[in-house]
Amino acid sequence: MLTVMLRRRQGDFLLDIAFEAPTPGVIALFGRSGCGKTTVVDLIGGLRRADAGRIEVGGATLLDTARGIAIPAERRRVGYVFQDGRLFPHLNVRGNLDYGRRRARGGVQYVGFDEVVALLGLEALLRRRTHQLSGGEKQRVALARALLAQPRLLLLDEPLAALDQARREEVLPYLERLRDELAVPMLLVTHDYDEVLRLATHVVLMDGGRVLAQGPPAQLSLAPQLRAIVGPEAIGAVLEGQVVAIDAASGLARVAVGSGTLSVESDGLATGQRLRLQLLARDLILATGPPHGLSVRNALAGSVTAIEADGAHAALVHVAAGGTAIIVRVTAQAASELALRSGLPVWVLVKAVTLRTHVYHARAR
Amino acid sequence: MPLLNDMEREALLLSLGVALRSVLWSLPPAIGVAWLLTRRRVPGRLLLDAAVHLPLVLPPVVVGYLLLLLFGVRGPVGAWLDAQFGIRLVFTTAGAALATAVMTFPLMVRAIRIALEGVDRGLEDAARALGAGPLDRFFSVTLPLMLPGVLAGAITAFAAALGEFGAVITFVGNVPGETRTLPLALYAVLQSPGGDAAAARLATLSLLLGVGGLLLAELLARALRRRLGR
User: Fold this and answer.
1) Which of A223, A266, B47, B81 is the most exposed place for a label (fewest CB within 10 A)?
2) Number of other CB atoms surrounding residue A337 within 10 Å
3) CA–CA separation, A303 and A346 (whole Å)
4) How close A72 comes to chain B (CA, Å)?
């Protein structure tokens, strides 16, 4: 468990947050730039001082101002991967990795040198000097360096933000591997919702120095507070599912979600894989009768649970279907023509090709 | 015919010895003072800054005279050193090195300060998060990163030390084999009739040393910066 309660005033800005998240896993600190995310990780890492607060990781107290406990940063055993990597330029890659390893405290070893080097694909880079590395390689080295200091918590401050899209895609799989194969809890700071959906096991939504909402990504996807942060285009339910069958002929995979199934494009998927599906509200269609003669692959039967206005000309319709909650965005005109109301039976139509999937294979522990 | 005569060789070796000692002695305190001036908000920072730069603006003779007052056989520090350790600075090579160190101290502190200001504090934070305490961070990250500047400063100070005259002759006199460095030897031959040729040779020697020192400083700094990938 990671417990964080922090207060810090900086000029006009007041940071006042509290959250608790299960570990191990990836806890995403998600919010717009300037909402105080980096301050939070600096406070957890001990690089800045809190006015008041308490930080506990897996039973160890790093800070408790009420009891006068404030472990200095160098003894917190909290790893920190910075946006800009911050590799030591006077050391080569191996020297950077050894830096943290030699200073590992507490006699606990979660991860070995060879394991980390293999996990992050650094074998060929060990003798390089840091200025000969690409941006993505630098971040992988920074990750390895932090892990080898045997941290009880790894802080990742927008580790991908300084990278272009291609480099980002190169580093993301490594982060997924660390999440799925190591037991080190990670706190990921990001302003990118896709990163959250791809990596996070728990989300803490921040704005203006406060926590707006928190929970698993699927649960948080329905929270109204999320909408202003991600923007109207990204509103939509996130569902957890598992691939039950792959049909090579049609190129579709059947994914069990709640008590029903959904068809998605099977590219890169394998039977048994756990998935996270993002059903964007604007991509979904509502029908008041069972659909016939349509190209759409998925029709989930359910009923309307609530309708809320979304601006002057649109509505967000909440639907319960097969044990899952879904949000559909329709025009206000359609809502009135279909006479949508709470309790009305409806079918939610989902095109297989519009479903955004994030493979997610958290190892059973 | 040998390149240098005995007098010239003696003065040259003495100059190099004095300059080397003065640099080695002033390096640690210069790093300490540069640290205080850049990283700490100590009270009296401005005063310390002014004191460090004093030798740059004072006539060297005044510095020599102040040293004589402090470190002379009857001066407070000089008397104590003599009584406790039997160390005498006046008329000795060690005294010449001390005078030179004081005179070149501002140069050294300036170079180190600039180097220290150029060190990315973020790297020190990174070291901290990896478990390095304050001293450990300084020696494993800060110092290696400022090394190019420190070396350049040390070599510049060394070159300047070779030419120090006023403070040395005031504090420790002009004793052949003890304190008669190149500039002092040059002064001595100029005082004697018919010393023009000897003076020209000593002046040329000083010039070559100075230029060589500055070139070496630049080359070393470049090589180190390349190593750091900058």
Assistant:
1) B47
2) 11
3) 5
4) 9
Cβ neighbours for A228, distance < 8 A, ≥ 6 positions apart:
A207
Q: What is the pLDDT of residue A71?
A: 94
Give the whole-angstrom CA distance, residue B230 versus residue A103: 27
Q: What is the CA radius of gyration of chain A?
A: 23
Taking CA atoms, A1 is separated from A19, A52, A69, A153, in Å, by 10, 20, 19, 11
- For A268-299, the pLDDT digits (tens) are 888 888 888 889 998 899 999 888 888 888 88
Of B219, B207, B19, the residue nearest B107 (C-alpha) = B19
**Cα B118 from Cα A248, distance rounded (Å):** 60
Mean pLDDT of A346-362: 76
Percent of chain A topping pLDDT 70? 97
Cβ–Cβ < 8 Å for A201, A26: yes
Give me the number of domains chain B comprises.
Answer: 1
Question: Mutate which of A42, A78, A103 to test chain B, going by most B C-beta atoms within 10 A?
Answer: A103
Q: Give mean pLDDT, residues A321-347.
A: 91
Residue B85 counted as domain residue = yes
Predicted confidence (pLDDT) at residue A189 exceeds the cutoff of 90: yes
Handedness of CA A327, A332, A334, A337 (dihedral sign): positive
What digits encode the pLDDT tens for the residues B40-67? 887 888 898 899 999 999 999 999 999 9
Cβ–Cβ below 8 Å for B122 and A84: yes
**Separation between Cα atoms, residue A73 and residue B132, nearest integer Å:** 9
- Residue B125 and residue A131: Cβ atoms within 8 Å? no
Is B60 within the bounds of a domain?
Answer: yes
Asked if residue B113 is part of any domain, the answer here is yes
Task: Indicate yes or no: pTM above 0.90.
Answer: no
Range of the domain at B82: 6-227
Identify the residue whose tokens are 């100070």: B157
> If you search the block for the tokens 């084999």, which residue do you land on?
B177
Whichever domain contains B223, its CATH number is 1.10.3720.10
Could you read off the pLDDT of B161-206 as tens digits, one per residue? 988 999 999 999 888 888 899 999 999 988 888 888 889 999 999 8
Residues 6+ apart with CB under 8 A from A234: A193, A280
Domains of chain A with bracketed CATH: 2-226 (3.40.50.300), 236-359 (2.40.50.100)
In contact, A241 and A255? CB cutoff 8 Å: yes
SS3 A348: strand
Question: Interface pTM (ipTM) of the complex?
Answer: 0.83
Measured between alpha carbons, how far is B171 from B168 in angstroms, rounded to an integer? 5
Minimum distance, in Å, between the CA of residue B149 and any CA atom of chain A: 14
Say if B1 falls within a structural domain. no
